[in-house]
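User: quick one, fold this
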Amino acid sequence: MRIIKDIRIPMRDGVHIAADIYLPDGAGKVPALLALSPYGKELQAQALTLPPQARPSHLWNGAIEAGDIREVVSRGYAHIIADVRGTGGSEGQMCGNYNSGGHGDGKDIYDLVEWMAEQDWCDGNIGMIGISYFASVQILGAAEQPPHLKAIFANGGHFDLYELCYHGGIMWLMPRASREGRGGDSGNAFNNVASKSSKVFSPGELKEKTKERLKDPDIAHWSDFVHLLHYQDRHELWMDYLLNPLDGPFWQKDSAIDVAHKVTIPTYFQAKWGRGWNVEGTIECFHKVSGIKKLDIQALPPMLERPFHESHDEMFRWYDYWLKGIDNGIMDEPTVQFSVEGSYKWRGEEQWPLPNEEKKAFYLRPRHKISEKPEPLTSEYAHPDGFYQAPLTVTTTSEKIKWTSDKFLEAVEMTGTGALYIHAEIDTDDTNFIAKLYDVDPSGKRTLMTSGYLKASHRELNEEKSTYGEPWHPHNRAVPVTPGEINEYAIRLYPFSFLIKPGNRIELELACNEPLDGEDAKLLPPDSYHLPSGRATTHKIYRDADHPSRLVLPVIPKQFDVSNK
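Assistant:
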């Protein structure tokens, strides 16, 4: 392996991007794979010396994501690892998440790709490599349409910037880790960074936005964020999320999901079940790109090993076909493939969602039951369930309520997107609804099938986009709840695929907070929970003849399910 360290590559505006180049020995001109991130190229070099670590290893470092350098080179590719402008050894300024408020990572990728194509070690066929940030920017780069970028392989990307941090309008804290270096992440290697908010808003507007955020009880009961809002220049990229809790042009303009339709080259998407927010954005981006495309959703556990090395065999098959011209059969395989959890089987399909999916209702009933039949009695007799949640400033308990079905008599495959429609009354102007759906085997072991999140004040639906069993929320304004009023809340459940075996049950768990060390977060980095509600709230859940609270789940008819394949 030949290594060229700390090359300075000129961009169109005169800024120089720092990169390390790894080349096969004596191979002449070869195809090349570009990796670009703000985490520091020297950190990615640890892939040469650090054996891959799976969660919950203490050595797992979420930022080592550029791929297995030695494997890339041994397969006859050059591996170029570059620092985003304003980070590591690169000049310029990083402004906003994915440089969305600055020069734009896509423009720099264009310039890097075309520079690479002119080098004496490159044959002009270029792809990209890496997960998470490295995958997200592939869409931004491909949308710029550099002539020598022939294909991309985007694994575990975050294409919707709002969805990265806000799930159903509820703030998720894990993105803070990757930006600041917390709980198993090295964080960004800043040398010159600014928040997008500091460029978009005037000092007076920033002051007003800060005052408004400090009034939010969720923020006011989380002392760390109160502190950060008073010292905003220390946490620039996270500050954009703290200050902008609504979706809209701030998050949408020039995001990957916004420009994906401009991607015309072959694109392979990968994600893993168990990270619903990531799967949702991946599927949406898959639908939006306009070139040849594939979608692959892999089995649990949810987090890939670091240094990243998984999925390389499939990636090399993709690039051997598109960059080397080797007909290895990959284009003869189904467009969509995914693991059906609970079955140890894979499905190959030509589209998502599956054409034979049927939305089926499962009703919440008294005595914490789930039934295929609705409740016949009114609330006068079928009184509501409920729970009271005090802020975590005064309790360590996250209250929850559960409903469980009878045993399934035969195997049932559920594949697609679901919804929970609940009729609820609260005695405050807002709360969180966090829904988790489990498969429960006869021994009582629970496996998370899918989850859904909705802040009550974000209950408005996008009526044009929503369909039965697939609600969509615009999240572009918060509408306070009238205390004591019964509202129907349509909670979108993230896409999933699961085979429920005979003798197993499904169990729905509903809460407004989640344990900071909950069972579902153990394989994720610390801080992978959602900002708790700061309101002391009583929740009443109605599930009677007048208020048919129900799960609507994507059932695959028996003749088409995976148990018959």
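User: anything notable?
Assistant: The longest strand covers residues 412-426.
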